[in-house]
Amino acid sequence: MACSREKQTLINQYMDEEMTLQETKQFEEHVNSCAECKQHVTELKKTIAIVQSASHFEAPASLTANVMNKLPKQPKTKKWQM
Amino acid sequence: MDSVVKKIVREVKRGNQDAFAELMELYKDKVYHIAYRMLGNSHEAQDVAQEAFLRAYMNIESYDENRKFSTWIFRIATNLAIDRIRKKKPDFHLEDKVGGTENLDYYSQFASEEELPEEQIVKLELQQWIQDEIMHLPPKYRSAIILKYLEDMSLKEISEILNLPVATVKTRIHRGREALRKRLK
Hints:
The complex is a heterodimer of chains A (about 80) and B (about 180). Chain A has about 80 residues and is mostly helical. In chain A, about 60% of the residues lie in helices and about 0% in strands. Chain A has helices at about 5-15, 20-35, 35-50, 65-70. In chain A, helix 2 packs across helix 3. Chain B has about 180 residues and is mostly helical. Chain B has helices spanning about 1-15, 15-40, 40-60, 70-90, 105-110, 120-135, 140-150, 155-160, 165-185. Chain B: Belongs to the sigma-70 factor family. ECF subfamily. Chain B: One of its GO terms (biological process) is response to stress.
């Protein structure tokens, strides 16, 4: 039962937070009584947590200057008018 | 924020290059980060990020001001990253070994003279491992997973960046998520 296409659809809806409160409650009740679904959901939650723990980097400091140096020459008359 | 960006974009359209530098400062970190996560190394990520901004400048006239600038620049960067992956490896499969053979230089991100304490090394290894796992995903799942779980974007934003219907984005997230789960369990 746990690996049926229908169960996978429910798991996806649950993980995407696309269930109504009622549906969530029903699904969680099922998960608590079905070892396979429980494991599947736990693994998915763990997977997402791992991916989300990836660090964020800043761009190298030289990036803006590198691009600015490659731009075509700026017409002299155009200046800030903000 | 949006109105500030609009103002800056108008200046860029008038030919003001200082304004373009301002625009770059706002988006360079995100553009670079997306490219890094797609490509797995800092050298290529820098190349792609620079190329994305150059193209944005050259094509600024075609940018529709009614849309978010971020969506537009992320789309250019994602397309460039995907093109580059395709050129590197025309037949990419889930099972292919990529992470181990790629020249991943995560450590260079933290280049430092001093010796790293053990705690930091463990953290670096964990981070390297996460990137390896992301690199195992086929590019079309990889981009969806990065935008969803690393950049925390909505399905609508992702669908605009990848130029795909929301339903397709969802499928890619589901498949990418499952592929990662099977490897990580």
